[in-house]
């Protein structure tokens, strides 16, 4: 496996009970890139992210992260290795303040396999990335808007100093201004060396931030390639994305 490949999944299948949701999904994320996992509602995007991080018990296939096999690992093992996950449902601690929520996610500094220091995230640094949060460090999570909670969930994940973040539907259900801030945040993370795999339906948002894309339909990969090529491929977009 190439040294710049962070996450490598081969033949990934998953089930909810007796219902199979994913069928032999292959995907990769390289160091320093943003990859979009595109598809309509119910295509299997969120299930793919949850399967990659080990949240679904009934799964098969091979998943490696930083060259280490995590195919049968639980999600907390992947998190300790530096694989972050931001769920769609904004799991903030409503009774804790912004600062206290951030401290929950804190992990030690990390180094890349080649010895180079990985980005280290502190509350002060995150408040520069998310100015809205910097204005409310003592506000309880339960008194924040949905968009603010989304930012806090991302920021708390970054306190774990991940090499790669799995970001589930970051533009879903938030105000346009927050969507714009999310796009700027993703580009800033990329510039700092953090890789991102995001599940997304919003084609415009994905085009703004992504280097490559996969398109899922009924749990199967229907397209893999550069984001620019997907943008130009009207046939694929109409068939699987309705755009």
Automatic annotation (TrEMBL):
Keywords of this entry: Amino-acid transport, ATP-binding, Cell membrane, Membrane, Nucleotide-binding, Transport
Molecular functions (GO terms): ATP binding; ATP hydrolysis activity; branched-chain amino acid transmembrane transporter activity
Signal peptide from the UniProt entry: none
UniProt xrefs under PROSITE patterns: ABC_TRANSPORTER_1, ABC_TRANSPORTER_2
Location of the ABC transporter domain: 7-243
GO biological process: L-amino acid transport
Pfam families: ABC_tran (PF00005)
CDD domains the UniProt entry points to: ABC_TM1139_LivF_branched
InterPro entries in UniProt: AAA+_ATPase, ABC_transporter-like_ATP-bd, ABC_transporter-like_CS, BCAA_Transport_ATP-bd_LivF, P-loop_NTPase
PANTHER family: ABC TRANSPORTER ATP-BINDING PROTEIN, HIGH-AFFINITY BRANCHED-CHAIN AMINO ACID TRANSPORT ATP-BINDING PROTEIN LIVF
Similarity annotation: Belongs to the ABC transporter superfamily.
Protein's recorded name: ABC transporter ATP-binding protein
């Amino acid at each position: 496996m190439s040294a710049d490949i962070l996450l490598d999944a081969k033949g990934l299948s998953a089930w909810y009970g007796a219902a199979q949701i994913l069928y032999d999904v292959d995907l990769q994320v390289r160091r320093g890139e943003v990859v979009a996992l595109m598809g309509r509602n119910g295509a299997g995007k969120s299930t793919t992210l949850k399967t990659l991080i080990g949240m679904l018990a009934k799964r098969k296939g091979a998943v490696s992260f930083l060259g280490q096999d995590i195919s049968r690992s639980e999600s907390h093992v992947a998190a300790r290795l530096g694989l972050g996950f931001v769920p769609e449902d904004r799991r903030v601690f409503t009774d804790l303040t912004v600062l206290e929520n951030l401290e929950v996610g804190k992990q030690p500094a990390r180094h890349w396999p080649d010895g180079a220091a990985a980005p280290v995230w502190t509350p002060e640094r995150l408040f520069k990335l998310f100015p809205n949060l910097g204005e409310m460090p003592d506000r309880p999570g339960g008194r924040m808007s949905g968009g603010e909670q989304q930012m806090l969930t991302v920021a708390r994940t970054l306190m774990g100093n991940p090499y790669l973040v799995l970001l589930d539907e970051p533009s879903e259900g938030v105000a346009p201004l927050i969507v714009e801030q999310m796009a700027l945040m993703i580009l800033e993370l990329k510039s700092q060396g953090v890789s991102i795999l995001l599940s997304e339906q919003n084609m415009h948002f994905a085009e703004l931030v992504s280097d490559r894309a996969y398109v899922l339909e009924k749990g199967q990969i229907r397209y893999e390639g550069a984001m620019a090529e997907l943008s130009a491929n009207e046939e694929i977009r109409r068939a699987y994305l309705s755009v």
